[in-house]
Structures are given as structure tokens and as C-alpha cells.
Amino acid sequence: VGSVRESVTTGLRQDASLLLGGDVEIRLHNRPVAADEAAFVGVGARAISDTLQMRAMARTREARSLVELKAVDGRYPLVGAVATEPAMSLEDALGQREGRWGALAERSLLTKLGIGIGDTVRLGEATFAVRGTIAREPDRVASVFSLGPRLLIRAEALPATGLVQPGSHIHYRTRVALAPGVDGGAWIEDLERAFPQAGWQIRTIDDAVPGVRRFIERMTLFLTFVGLTAL
């Protein structure tokens, strides 16, 4: 039991930065990082990437499906890479061509909507061209619970959808890659001290996948009890 637990936790530690999407993740609900907060976050950071996640309805003329919408900036991902089918860069996949933004979707979404690569999908008030499917999303493991397939778009395209409105349930995430020599613990303490009322949740690579870690701990406890009972 101990060997299994140690092998799994060792793997999580080795891939923690990839699973988290950086060295530090700052989560905010229903509001982005303010300008003064962003300026403070930039001190000691080597790179910063902002993403937005929400649930939305993707639709065609014949079908519709709930999706986990993710809008990313041009620096995403800070760690790892998004693998697409067919293979292409995120700029080619999500950029604007002939007045229309692109999108990447999980294969299951195409099946639900009955469309293929090259077809269009409606999201709010905007129409997107599906230019490929997502084969691997490096930081997706950190989000275990999902109500629908992933749909990935560029953050600059989000205003055209009209989905960001008062009452929208939105999660803003800022991933930070710290500069060499910066102590992560001290950096977080300074951030929380400067903005004690910010209301954000800060995670580091030591807590990249808390849900998985809790499952491992409970599994270890259960198997230990089984072993003791058998003994």
C-alpha cells in the first residue's frame, strides 16, 4: 500500500508544474485580477497567463450541447503544450481568419453536435470555425469535474459572444511562472499581505491537484484497514 501511494504521489510531484499550468495559480470568481493586483503579481514573475472558464451552450441549427468554455490569452500555456488534431499552433487554431475566430473542441462535442472539422458552431452571439480537436490539454487534469466537453477559444473573441454579463458564473485564473531565484512561499505571503481582501484562492505546485491527492490519501487509509483486517 505504501509503495503504491508513494509511486503515485512522486509522479504528481514531478508533473505538478504541468498540471497546475505554472508555479502559482491565482483563482478569482466573477472578477478578473485588477490593474493594481496585476502590477504586484508581475513583480518576481517570469511570465503570466490569464484564462477564463465558464459553462456555455454551443449550438448548430440541428443540435446544442453544454460545454466547458475556456478562453485563453496568447501566452497560454506557460508549461507544456496543447496537442491538436490535425497538428497546428494555437495561433492558427484560434486566430481570426476572414473575420471569423477559430475554436478547438473535444472530439465528443463534434459527435454530439453532428459536425466535423471545418464546420461552424454558434456560441452566444458569435460564430466560430472548428479548426481541430483537442488531443491533449496540459492543465486539464487539475479540473476533474466536468459537465460537458471542452471548447477552447481566444480570450479576444469572448466579448463578441456576449456571454460575460452580470450574473454569469465565471472563473478567472492567472497562472504565474516565477523568475529564477524567487521564493514562492515568500512571494505568496507578500501578495496576500498587500491585498488581504482580494478574495482569491492561491495554489502552488505543492497543491496542484488537491482532489486527486485527497483520493489517494483515502484510498491508502482504506487499503490499510483492509490489510489489517486480513492480518
Write a structural description:
There is one protein chain. The chain has 231 residues and is of the alpha+beta class. 32% of the residues lie in helices and 32% in strands. It contains eight helices and eleven strands. The protein has helices at residues 2-14, 16-20, 35-42, 90-94, 107-113, 158-161, 184-194, 210-230, and strands at residues 24-29, 45-59, 64-72, 83-85, 96-97, 100-105, 120-123, 126-136, 150-154, 170-178, 201-204. It has a six-stranded mixed β-barrel with strand order 2-3-9-6-8-7. Strand 2 (45-59) and strand 3 (64-72) form a beta hairpin. Helix 1 (2-14) packs antiparallel against helix 8. The two termini are 14 Å apart.
Secondary-structure topology with pairs:
Layout: H1 2-14, H2 16-20, E1 24-29, H3 35-42, E2 45-59, E3 64-72, E4 83-85, H4 90-94, E5 96-97, E6 100-105, H5 107-113, E7 120-123, E8 126-136, E9 150-154, H6 158-161, E10 170-178, H7 184-194, E11 201-204, H8 210-230
Parallel strand pairs: 3-9, 6-8
Antiparallel strand pairs: 1-10, 1-11, 2-3, 2-7, 2-10, 4-8, 5-6, 6-9, 7-8
List keywords for this structure.
6-stranded mixed barrel, alpha+beta, 231 residues, globular
Provide the low-confidence segments as ranges: none
Q: What is the helix content?
A: 25-40%
Task: Specify the biggest β-sheet.
Answer: 6 strands, mixed, barrel
N/C terminus separation: 14 Å
Mean pLDDT: 88
Compact overview of the structure:
By secondary structure, this protein is α+β, with helices and mostly antiparallel strands. Helix content is 32%, strand content 32%.
